Amino acid sequence: MRSLLTFLLLVMAQGIASSQNQVFEVPEGFSVTHFAGDDLAHDIWSMTIDDHDRICVGGPGYIKFLLDTDNDGIADRAQTFTENVRTGPMGLLVDGDSIISVESNAVIRHVDENGDLKADGKPQVLVDFTGKGGEHGPHGIRKGPDGWYYVVCGNNTGVDESHSNLIGVPPLIKKPNQGCIIRIAPDGTGSEVIAHGFRNPYDIAFSDDGRLFTYDSDNERDHHLPWYASTRVFDVAFGRHHGWLNPGYKQSYNTPEYYTIDRLAETRRGSPTGVEYYWHNAFPEHYRKGLFFACWTFGRIYYAPLEWVDDSGLLQERQLKKQSPEIFAKAGAEGGFAPVDLGVDSKGNLWVACGGRNTSGNVYCISPPNGPGETKTRNVSLPQMMVGRNVIKPQLQHPHTVRTFLKNQEDLHLVYRAYQESSGGINHRPEPRAFDAGYSFNILPSEDSQALRDAIISESGATLLFDMDVKAEQALTKDAEAFAEFWSQPEKPLLVEPWRSRNYKELARTLGCVKTDLTPVLENLTTALREDTHPTDDLHYLFCMAQIPAQRTSIATWRIASAFLQIDAKLAAIPGAHPSRNWPLRISELFEVHCEKEPNLGKEVMWSHSLFGSSIHHSRYVDLIPDPALKKEVTEKMYYRIRDSKEKWTSSWTTLLKENLPDLEVSEIRQAWDKQPQVRHLLADWFVTKADVFDDTSRLFDMMEIGDEKVVEQAVEKLKIRDLPRSADQTRKVLISLIKSQKHRPTQQALLSLIGANSLEEALTNAQKEFPESVEIASLAGPQGTDEFLKRLPEIDWAAGAPEKGKQLYTKLTCSVCHSGQNRLGPSLKAVSARFGRDDFFRHTVNPNLAISELYRAVEISTRDGKTHIGVPVYSSPDQTILETGPGKTINLSQGQVIDSKPESTSPMPPGLLLGLNDADLADLWAYVKTL
């Protein structure tokens, strides 16, 4: 109750200093005003600010203006602009008398001709897309300095060649790949793809000099590796690919960072949303001319200054420094801070909209320490790449107009310079990458080209296979002898710490792609596998080496073995590196391939290496031993080395022990059972055959929750040896097992015989009488007894029910709080009478624990500060959980805060909801429910 009171006081306050703000924190001196809440706009998805500083927001089924009619700094009215939207707008832009809305895979113009803040007539579709859309569809929209609309699109949008359709202008990008940024003519007569290779950026922003920025989402798991590629801010390179290659998370492959556009900033994992360039001068100088960008998952707004570095590249291009962003705002003590969009008004205030995934809608205004500044208008320069690019006049220096020049050049540096200059300096990496340029235009495919041969045997050919076509790969294969001769020289691997070199990584990949017997090179390549290298790099080299058909020397084999044995320890030392389910399988597959190339590798790993057996994860290598006797011997050796380790048992290790050490002492299994609950489902069938009922009563009752019929039946037989006193908790476990096993008669009969009952109903009734103090058991049975309650229903005069009275009861019982369809505490009851009959409806109302949908199953989370939070997860990842703990209330919890998390066995719905209602009340309630 105190937390709720604190939140309500916050909502009512007009200006709140950062030290007092319970929802989110900002730097000292800044003030926060809660401008609008969920009552005016629920679940906000996007926001924009018009020329009059009016706030316009969009969400499921609406676009609204939030109006402050009494000028007190807080919105007091919501003016619905239109409800004629496809699902809801992911991006909004007010442009004159129109609102341009990015909706369900389309860009749509809504027009307000008479200025009454209401859309008139039928909306105009400016661009339609063909992809899946949704959360990975089109998102943010901005008006560029050229007057065109710029839209950022996720990788399910379906952008293709048809979206570059400007008359007389060659396409800047021939074949768009994955997420893109497009620009659309103001009259909707044409569009153009200007950048691609994103995963799922949500917003874009222009700087004063016309540079375009976006914040792209993380890359999920890279090839099922145990970490996620960082979320990243791009200084967008027009005409370039930004690294994301495949459409879905299952492929999980993105181009290595050293191939592609530099990231301006990285923020590890998260869900990027709003991006805003701070162009005003009201904020302190540190925050001027910099970039704000929001993360929905972690409830943060980051800030990165834009600082130039001097660069002596071919084009003398100005380049921005890569930044380690600072956190400008973050979720406070009360949480519930889910920023979805950002904006800056004419007085220099920073606006933040919150919502998403059916959470509470809020809009906040962050004002500078000295209050709002003077009113300013903004001017943005046209990006160099866009000068002259319109539907009438094509750019004279477009790359395709200089093809003749490029074809006649053998000097790779001149080729690269021509590519850069003709593209308006679009490549933000000034280092010469001639093959990136050359093969992008297919101008250097000749297999006898001296330039190609020179690059093959030089360290400057680092990006040799990037964008390389089949003809170029054939040329490389023909020159493989020269390639091998150059790189097998003893001194080559010692060139400037090659294990830290981008070129050396690319060398390994090139060798793996060529698949030529390059034995002299392989041992030199293994020098990249070191104790101090990152596991990302180790895996890169191990994957590449697995493809090289070359002889392994004893030194190379030892280094490869060391890399496999150290990779888990290296992984454990990286904060936030959470292995995926497929991680052990991928490593095992990789190890198998290496063993095929060098049969002695297994022997080296299992016997000769001092590191073997130092980690439970080494069991994945033992799994691959084909000889049963050898596998048993190695398992035993490993077990006695790590038996006192604090590492958690894995499924692989537990299975190995069961299969190879079946006679392990029961005391060892008891210890694992008590300390390693994550593998109890694997230990249960092993343990139950050994358990002595006099010593293991509590563990045998624990097996009731595992759900395996044979295990439950065996546990029951053990427990029936003598008449055992049962606790409320043990009885609860039996009852849960009974409910789970209703379709398996033998198991149910065994459980009923254990507790002396003939039916589930009798067991529930007896339990409630025997343990009345047990709330959980009482809720299982229903406060009035489900069967007894249902006996009332046939006698009720349902025709006499009055919907108006039923509505009053519905409100009194606060049903709409959880069942409005606007949160995750319970499903919407709209048309519920069409889905459930009357008896079913009341059966589940009086006993809500009979069937709990996983969509609405609550979790109980214990945190390090001694608190316990119960709610339904809105979002969950290995790093962060957003928990909806009540109507319109969420809390953000980082993984570091969480001690324990477990699903609730009871429904969030209170079991005593219908206590005290008479028959007439029930008839009224049902009459109203049928109207929903």
As a percent range, the share of helical residues equals 25-40%
Largest sheet, in brief, is:
5 strands, antiparallel
Indicate the radius of gyration in whole angstroms.
33 Å
Secondary structure: number of strands: 33
Beta percentage is 15-25%
Number of helices: 30
Outline: flat
Q: What is the average per-residue confidence, as pLDDT, rounded to a whole number?
A: 76
| Order of the strands making up the biggest sheet | 1-3-28-27-26
Q: Assign the structural class, choosing from mainly alpha, mainly beta, alpha/beta, alpha+beta, or little secondary structure.
A: alpha+beta
Low-pLDDT regions:
1-21, 311-317, 387-476, 491-500, 775-784
How far the N terminus sits from the C terminus, by CA atoms, comes to: 31 Å
Written overview of the protein:
With 932 residues, the chain is of the alpha+beta class. The chain has 30 helices and 33 strands. The strands form 8 sheets. Strands 1-3-28-27-26 form a 5-stranded antiparallel beta sheet. A hairpin with a 5-residue loop joins β12 (138-143) and β13 (149-153). α17 (666-675) packs antiparallel against α18 (680-690) and α21 packs antiparallel against α23. The chain is flat. Mean pLDDT is 76; it is low at 1-21, 311-317, 387-476, 491-500 and 775-784.
